[in-house]
Design a protein that fits this description.
555 residues, FAD/NAD(P)-binding domain, Glutaredoxin, eight-stranded mixed β-sheet, globular, disordered N terminus
Length: 555
């Protein structure tokens, strides 16, 4: 790999070295625990997550470079928290453009403003805008730190066959083809997945008869760092426009074109530049960084698991770009899958745990597709009645808050709560709030050994037991009980000084963690490795925790 540098030019021109694999140089057949296909954000996240847990991984990609253009631009709070665990969250936040506020316009008038993270006390913002090639570059640099993670460029999967114990892949390289086997294969190779095609599978769904132009525009502008969405603006009448700020003084502009637009013609500078000038004004100087035309589609595979092959990201499901659900849901697929796969490979859980990956993430995909479809129908009405309804809603929204709930300029990505998951232990005690079993855990500021820090980074990699107590006697009982519980971290939340041997004591000095988790004295939470709630109780009970752990690991 070339020398690292934090510049767009570096990441856009970076070429990775192809290395002849040992299967060719030594003429040997090899078998690995996991092969991941596709080195985009999802495939890299899978490979890093597994490598962090000690699993040997081979990552195959048919190219030798990072993505081109901004592509998956908006990375949501939950995805940033996952990136923190994988090792690149801080880099993404520092390089990217953080934002919480969005504005909606109808014609030339502002309709209303919304804040996606109105409360304080979270480490990460609602969203960070950063070009996809930066994120891929940062993830790759994390991956390169693991000697048991073998990244292979210019390696195209051209055949796949599987049996009850694994799968055999044929990989085409500049030096010829070779065979390689794995106990499990993760297909994260995008919407045109070669693995899916080789297996004779397909994604089904709805293609929307509309097209949008993306223009990455480099300019000096005084627009605030907010998401702006126009319905029927005077500079692009009868259509919609979206404006986002990116890193490096680049702005992403999406122009609705209509179904009859010719994609190749619309990508030419002669067509793009006048559209941008109409928005910015004729005197504003800018240059085009990247241009693309896309069509809305909401699709998914019927099942994400097929034997020893598991599909993730766009290979498994796809949504329209509005709402920032594509890469975010894909990274959350990885977060859900990899702890389960690692436990199965280590003999810590039965294979049936993997079936819950499909159950939970197919549910999440349906949720994303539902929201994306509703957004698309609102943004691009296909009948006069639909447009009359939409425009009436927008007019009412200027003065009536009830109508704003009906405006849909792209409901933005939120993590799914797996309320129906078989891994949950239902509440037996009464709780308030949203931290129900299956919910993604919320963050809050805490102190650890008198140092200011955040709660979520204290959880992850394996199961965590969270106990709220100020009593030394309770902590001693819990610590003793932990010796007979499955391997998990124990975290105490206390405002007292506790003397502990192997556990960590967090000080909830602002009281936000207890408030957000509706915690009282001795409230106990069992947290999954992907930071979703598995179970919770109003008091510590060893046998209940053991049973909840067995439930959460499909035993």
């Amino acid at each position: 790999m070339q020398t690292s540098a934090a510049s767009a030019k570096h990441y856009q021109t970076l070429k990775f070295d192809y290395v002849t694999p040992q299967e060719i140089t030594q003429n040997t057949a090899t078998t690995h625990p996991v092969i991941v296909v596709g080195a985009g954000p999802v495939g890299l996240s899978c490979a890093i997550d597994l490598a962090r847990q000690g699993v040997h991984v081979v990552l195959l990609d048919d190219d030798d470079c990072l993505s081109v253009g901004s592509r998956a631009l908006c990375f949501a709070k939950r995805t940033l928290e996952i990136f923190d665990r994988l090792g690149c969250g801080e880099r993404v936040v520092n390089k990217g453009i953080a934002w919480n506020v969005g504005k909606v316009f109808f014609k030339e008038d502002p309709v209303y403003t919304f804040n996606l993270l109105p409360e304080q006390g979270h480490q990460r913002p609602a969203f960070v805008n950063l070009q996809q090639y930066y994120v891929e570059g940062y993830l790759y640099e994390c991956a390169a730190q693991y000697p048991h993670l073998d990244v292979r460029w210019k390696s195209k999967v051209v055949a796949l066959e599987q049996n009850t114990s694994g799968a055999k892949l044929t990989v085409e390289t500049p030096d010829g083809s070779y065979a390689i086997s794995a106990q499990y294969v993760i297909a994260a190779d995008g919407s045109r997945s070669s693995v899916r095609n080789l297996m004779g599978l397909e994604s089904k769904g709805r293609v929307f008869r509309d097209r949008f132009l993306i223009a990455d525009v480099k300019m000096q502008a005084d627009f605030p760092t907010e998401r702006w969405f126009w319905f029927d603006p005077p500079f692009h009448p009868n259509q919609s426009v979206l404006l986002h700020r990116e890193a490096d003084d680049v702005w992403r502009i999406d122009f609705q074109l209509g179904w009859d637009a010719d994609p190749e013609i619309e990508k030419t500078p002669e067509k793009v530049i006048p559209r941008v000038q109409a928005l910015l004004g004729a005197d504003v100087k800018f240059s085009l960084e990247w241009v693309s035309v896309y069509t809305f589609a909401c699709m998914r595979m019927d099942k994400f698991q097929h034997g020893r092959v598991l599909f993730a990201g766009d290979a498994a499901h796809g949504v329209s770009p509005f709402g920032a659900r594509g890469a975010n849901s894909g990274v959350q697929d990885a977060d859900n899958l990899c702890w389960k796969l690692a436990m199965v490979l280590k003999g810590q859980a039965p294979q049936k745990l993997l079936s819950t990956y499909g159950d939970e993430r197919e549910f999440a995909a349906d949720e994303n597709i539902l929201n994306s479809t509703r957004s698309t129908d609102f943004i691009t009405p296909k009948s006069k009645i639909s447009q009359l309804f939409r425009d009436a809603v927008l007019d009412l929204s200027k003065h009536h808050p009830f109508a704003r709930r009906l405006v849909n300029s792209g409901r933005l990505s939120l993590p799914s709560t797996y309320t129906q998951s078989v891994l949950n232990t239902p509440d037996q005690d009464k709780f308030a709030g949203t931290m129900v079993p299956g919910a993604p855990l919320v963050d809050a500021p805490v102190r650890l050994q008198d140092q200011e820090t955040w709660f979520l980074p204290q959880c992850g990699e394996k199961f965590s037991l969270l106990v709220f107590t100020d009593e030394q006697s309770v902590a001693e009982v819990v610590e003793k009980a932990m010796q007979s519980l499955p391997d998990m971290d124990c975290l105490f939340v206390s405002n007292a000084t506790l003397t502990l041997n192997g556990s960590r004591c967090l000080q909830d000095h602002q009281g936000l963690l207890a408030t957000r988790l509706d915690a009282q004295a001795n409230t106990t939470y069992l947290i999954r490795p992907d930071q979703h709630v598995a179970a919770r109780w109003r008091s510590f009970d060893e046998s209940s925790i053991q049973q909840a752990w067995r439930t959460a690991t499909a035993q």
